[in-house]
Specification:
By secondary structure, this protein is an alpha/beta fold. The chain is built from 21 helices and 24 strands. Strands 1, 2, 3, 4, 5, 6, 14, 15, 16, 17, 18 and 19 form a twelve-stranded mixed sheet that branches. The chain has a three-stranded antiparallel sheet with strand order 7-12-13. α4 (71-84) packs across α19.
């Protein structure tokens, strides 16, 4: 089998004008970025506001492992599969971040015969949306720092600046830095501690993904809290007076991007917040118009069901006023074996016994999602080396749990290989009416919301709050932020806050070391365990295996 990039290069891709026409848009309605990518202006999309919403399908997964689960492959395969069985479908996915692309993960555009096209552009600069957020964030930082130098009219306490800098790359050495070195204020600024976030962790990334219009974007940016004064008063972006300039930098980034699958189905790729440190879902605009333009809309929640899945249901659905008609959980045999104690580097440990033990992780995610009142379908991402006996064990287990379970061969066969999954999803949507309910109500205290997520979703025995976290939560309640939803920042590699704990850990407590406010995004962020907001590179980064040929073709990108 060819590798991903060779498969993509061999694809018979359509001009993006043809893809636009398939959803009712003319060439005059779109802004082309070459032959295969386009942005769609918001005023064009608004023509479809009165369309009936299509059925919404959310794809999530078991807890990530080095074995891979194939969530994006399954999502794209499902889009292609639905089209194969005659359904009008539009996809909505997040944009890849260059940090993980050059780090461990590689790209995030699917794989095999279930990809979005052109992967070499989407995985890298794409249409510049992430660069625009980096620029807007760092402009804001520069304006804030300039206020300190120019007599500090807002009386900002330099030791209480909560806005850091940002860049779209994994640079652990920039997590904590000192700025303002260089002599006088006019030459070097005011010295204080700072640091860098990866751009996907910027609150502006979350705001861009949740905003529904330019006016909504402006209001959200204005609400961002960037520092505190000497009198402990919040300083917002509105106080700094630079929202207009930020809006200019973000004007095109708010427009969703249109691309296609390898089989020509339309897909919006827009928004890029991480699911372990932000809410982990593509833009509300992309999801909304995928629903307006298709009879079925397929979207993907980042990482596992306890992160992107929970955040889609408790944050995105709450703010956007939408609800899923079906949720798909992706699992693979080797991933579940890993959760049962199997080790990829020791093949003899990948046994029926480790598979059975690892089912606990899948069980927990199924139970969690069913608690939201939505039907659940388990998709087994099938590999050629999977033992049929192991596949049957998983099918039988899901049946015992009352969860539908099907096999997907989307990686090897594209839409044809996902037809069984597509038919099952359509069947479930047709016979099961969702009774959607969120995990907690708006007026529940912040601590109680965090405890609900920890105990009901993660399986913790409780929550340990640091003194600093307790103090921040109390302050946020007093300042009127108590009704905001919760966006937990924790490791993606475990249901717990300790990456090494696999399966469905018991007898542990969630450790909340600090709490951050994302007032513009509209949520409160408890930061748990050893979670950082700037990733680092592995010993051998994916970037070391990439190159450009003499004829301009990318190699090594996955």
């Amino acid at each position: 089998m060819m590798d991903d990039i060779q498969i993509a290069e061999a694809a018979n891709a359509k001009n993006i004008i043809e893809i636009a026409r398939s959803i009712g848009l003319s060439s005059e309605d779109i802004e082309q970025y070459g032959k295969y990518i386009a942005k769609i202006p918001l005023d064009v999309l608004s023509r479809f506001d009165k369309n009936k919403n299509g059925k919404l399908i959310v794809v999530t997964a078991v807890t990530p492992t080095p074995a891979g689960e194939g969530k994006t492959v399954t999502t794209i395969g499902l889009i292609q599969g639905l089209s194969h069985i005659g359904k009008k479908v539009v996809g909505a996915l997040r944009e890849p971040s260059m940090g993980p692309t050059f780090g461990v993960k590689g790209g995030a555009t699917g794989g095999g015969y279930s990809q979005v096209y052109p992967m070499w552009d989407i995985d890298l600069h794409f249409t510049g949306d992430i660069h625009a957020v980096s620029s807007a964030h760092n402009l804001l930082s520069a304006i804030l720092e300039n206020n300190l130098v120019r007599d500090n009219p807002l009386m900002i306490d330099p030791s209480r600046i909560v806005l850091k800098k940002t860049m779209d790359m994994n640079c652990r050495e920039l997590r904590q830095i000192i700025v303002g070195l260089g002599g006088s204020r006019s030459s070097g600024g005011v010295m204080h501690e700072s640091g860098f976030l990866i751009t996907s962790a910027s609150e502006i990334s979350a705001i861009l993904a949740l905003a529904t219009s330019y006016s909504d974007l402006r209001e959200r940016l204005e609400k961002m809290v960037v520092a505190y004064t000497y009198k402990n008063e919040m300083v917002t972006v509105k106080d700094l007076g630079c929202v207009g300039a930020m809006m200019i930098l973000l004007k095109d980034a708010l427009k969703p991007n249109l691309v296609q699958t390898l089989e020509g189905q339309p897909v919006f790729i827009h928004g890029f917040p991480f699911a372990n440190i932000a809410h982990g879902n593509n833009s509300v605009i992309a999801t909304k118009y995928a629903m307006k333009l298709g009879d079925y809309a397929v979207t993907e929640a980042g990482f596992a069901a306890d992160l992107g899945g929970e955040k889609f249901l408790d944050i995105v659905c709450r703010q956007a006023g939408i609800a899923p008609d079906c949720v798909v959980i992706v699992a693979s045999i080797k991933a579940l074996m890993t959760h049962g104690g199997g080790k990829l580097e020791e093949p003899e440990t990948l046994t029926k016994e480790t598979l059975v033990r690892g089912l606990s992780n899948l069980d927990k995610h199924i139970k969690n999602l069913k608690s939201y009142g939505v039907p659940v379908v388990v998709s087994i991402n099938h590999f050629s080396f999977d033992d049929p006996e192991h596949m049957q064990i998983l099918r039988d287990h899901c049946k015992d749990l009352g969860a539908e379970c099907v096999q997907s061969d989307a990686f090897m066969e594209g839409g044809k290989g996902a037809e069984e999954l597509a038919r099952k999803v359509v069947e479930v949507i047709g016979k099961v009416k969702p009774k959607f309910k969120m995990l907690y109500a708006d007026d529940v205290p912040l601590k109680d919301k965090i405890e609900a997520i920890a105990e009901k979703i993660y399986g913790a025995d409780g929550v340990i709050f640091s003194v600093a976290a307790e103090s921040t939560l109390k302050t946020l309640e007093e300042k009127g932020y108590g009704k905001l939803p919760i966006c937990v920042a924790k490791t993606q590699y475990s249901l717990s806050d300790v990456a090494e704990l696999k399966g469905a850990p018991k007898g542990w407590k969630l450790n909340v070391r600090e709490v951050a406010l994302s007032a513009g995004a509209g949520f409160v962020v408890p930061i748990c365990g050893t979670m950082t907001l700037m990733p680092g590179l592995s010993k051998t980064p994916a970037a070391m295996k990439m190159d450009l040929t003499e004829d301009g073709k990318v190699r090594g990108l996955k």
